[in-house]
Design brief:
single chain, 3 domains, 17-stranded mixed sheet
Length: 422
């Protein structure tokens, strides 16, 4: 049997073959290393992702928490020794309530009405710590069996009084919208402060802070007036004008209309002897008093309404208020068409101590006393209701509360009803 001869390979071939095997081994090792490294990176990424998810779930479970309050003095505000400048007011400060929820911190600016401020009695002399407090009540959740407990936090703000300059004045007598005041400087020199206006004072309205600021042009004295009340007046052309307890003193848009704010009431009267002619008066929370000779071609819808003693008022419309008073010696005439001439809202009161004439057109009610409201008359009352379905009444619909079914007529002591002369 013939033996096959093995083919001889060159030395170069064996080196080449050996190199090929080595390269294959290196490639296999490198591939395994890459696979192992990728697997390790993926595991680390996955574990980190799960950790982040777990942390986020923990944060999402954290409830809203009230941390406290922080206080800062607004720019441009300063307090001085010896009574110069003005005393600290809530609007001078930026007070924030600080919270955390779901791992995130945030702050909410507080209005001056929502926090308390206590100034030391000797602050004008010594300065010192001003105490602030705010009470936060969490919202009640469906699963809560009891009402949430209010949480109160406090903060103090320390202030060192500054030295007044020679050119600085302090108020000696406070000016009003009708009367002048006075101011004195460090050297004792006095100067007159004109009545508050927009000519002798720079006027700014800080609606977000709730006050108006008058800066006296000659002395730099600043006077703050809180903005507390507002209402609207329509001209006889039915154009609406809005005023607050400060701007009303400068009202000049409606001819012959003078407005002032006194004893928490807007006082409207003619500037001249001529009859003042206006449209409607509106203000959900406003108290309005009319004086002089006035004619309205619209309605009155306010919280309180007064007719001044000696006033002569004609209203060609309706009145809807919580409280109404026509003082002694007043003269009020109301002409209305349908519905109710005067509506006194629930548990309200109408006092008629003067002369009142209500003239309808065959329907409606003169005075509607809504649930538990009262009509009070005196020995001076002269009330006449003409041409309507009901003079005075209280009305209700089915399913309303029992206490809405009654109205009250209050008569003066000693009054006796004479049925024969009705």
């Amino acid at each position: 049997m013939e033996k096959k001869k093995m083919k001889k390979h060159s030395k170069y071939f064996w080196i080449k073959l050996a190199s090929g095997v080595t390269l294959s081994a290196i490639a296999l090792t490198t591939s395994l290393s890459v696979m192992l490294a990728s697997r390790s990176s993926y595991n680390a990424y996955y574990n980190d992702l799960m950790s982040q998810k777990s942390e986020q779930e923990r944060l999402n479970s954290l409830p809203l928490e009230f941390l406290g309050i922080t206080v800062a003095l607004n720019d441009g505000v300063a307090y001085y020794k010896d009574g110069f400048g003005y005393a600290p007011e809530k609007n001078d400060f930026n007070v924030k309530a600080n919270f955390t929820e779901k791992g995130k911190d945030f702050s909410k600016k507080l209005s001056s009405k929502s926090f308390e401020m206590t100034v030391p009695e000797d602050f004008a002399k010594n300065g010192g710590d001003i105490l602030f407090s705010y009470t936060f009540t969490p919202e009640k959740k469906e699963e809560d069996k009891t009402d949430p407990v209010p949480v109160t936090k406090t903060a103090t703000f320390n202030y060192v009084l500054q030295e007044p300059s020679e050119n600085m004045y302090k108020i000696e007598t406070m000016p009003t919208f009708t009367e002048a005041g006075s101011a004195v400087n460090v050297k004792g020199n006095k100067i007159t402060l004109e009545p508050l206006d927009k000519t002798n004072y720079k006027y700014e309205e800080k609606f977000t802070d709730g006050y108006a600021l008058f800066t006296h042009i000659k002395t730099g004295v600043t006077i703050k007036k809180a903005i507390t009340d507002s209402f609207s007046v329509y001209g006889k052309d039915n154009v609406k004008y809005e005023y607050n307890n400060v701007t009303c003193h400068f009202a000049n848009e409606i001819e012959n209309l003078g407005i002032s704010f006194l004893d928490d009431k807007f006082m409207l009267s003619p500037k001249t002897a001529d009859v003042l002619e206006i449209g409607s008066i509106e203000g959900d929370d406003a108290s309005v008093e009319l004086g002089g000779n006035i004619s309205l071609t619209g309605n009155i819808a306010t919280k309180k309404f007064f007719v001044e003693s000696g006033a002569k008022v004609v209203i060609n419309g309706t009145i809807n208020v919580d409280y109404m008073c026509a003082y002694k010696d007043s003269d009020l005439t109301c002409n209305w068409s349908g519905g109710d001439c005067i509506t006194i809202n629930g548990r309200g009161l109408i006092e008629l101590d003067g002369k009142v004439l209500m003239k309808g057109n065959g329907g409606g009610t003169g005075i509607n006393l809504v649930g538990m409201a009262s009509l009070q008359l005196t020995r001076n009352s002269e009330v006449k209701i003409e041409d309507c379905e009901w003079g005075v009444g209280t009305f209700w619909v089915e399913n309303e509360k029992e206490d809405t079914k009654e109205g009250y007529l209050l008569l003066p002591p000693g009054y006796k009803h004479d049925a024969e002369n009705d």
